[in-house]
C-alpha cells in the first residue's frame, strides 16, 4: 500500500495494531507483538501513545518481543534499542514491564548461544507472534538478518554488514563507535508471525524495496523471503515506491 506520506501510513498501521490488541482483550487473550526499532516505526509508536493517552488504549494484555539489539550494548546507552523502545513507547504506556522482551546486549559470550535459543522458545511458548512490525535496511536486512541469512534461521548473533554500520555511523558519531555485532531474531522466527507489516519511507529505500518485492527470493536480499509469507503488507510512501 502506497501512502502519500509516512504520517498517514503510520496512523493506519497503529490503528491495525490497536484493533488487534482490542480484539484480544474482548477474548481475554494476550496479544503477542514483535516490534522494530530504527526511524521507520517512530510515528507508529507516537500514534499508539496518543491512543493510550487520548482514547484509553490499554497495553495490559500485550507481550512484546523486539527484533534485535546491538552486541555488546549496555541498556543505559542512548544507542541501545532498549533505550529507544522505552523512550518512544514503553515509558508512555501501561504495559507490564515483565511483558517486555528485548535481546540483551550484555549477555556473556558463553551464555549467548543458549540465550538465543531461549528467546525463540519463549516466543513459541506464547503461541508465536500475532503481529510483527518491520523496517528494512539498505542491505535488505529485516531485524539484523544481513545478506547470507538462512530462510529458516533462528535468533542468533550476527556480524553487521559494512553498509549497515555506515548507515548507523551518524547517530553513533563515527563508524568506529558502531558495534560490529548484534543479536537478531531469525528469518525463521519472523516468518512464523501470523501477520507482518514492513514499513519503508524515503528515496533511499526505493531500490531495496524493488529488489525485495519484485526480485528473486534470495539470501542476498533477506527481506525477499517475505514473498513466501501469506499475510504480509508493505506500507510505503511515494518515495519508497518509486522504483516499483
Ligand atoms: C536497523 C534495525 C532494523 C531497521 C533498520 C532500518 O538496522 N536493526 O530493524 O529496520 O535499521 O532503519 P530505519 O528505519 O532507520 O531506516
UniProtKB/TrEMBL annotation:
Signal sequence interval, chain numbering: none
Record carries keyword Hydrolase: yes
UniProt entry keywords in alphabetical sequence: Hydrolase
Name of this chain's protein: Glucosamine-6-phosphate deaminase
Residue ranges of domain Glucosamine/galactosamine-6-phosphate isomerase in the record: 13-232
Molecular-function GO term, any one: glucosamine-6-phosphate deaminase activity
Species this protein is from: Lutibacter aestuarii
Gene: nagB
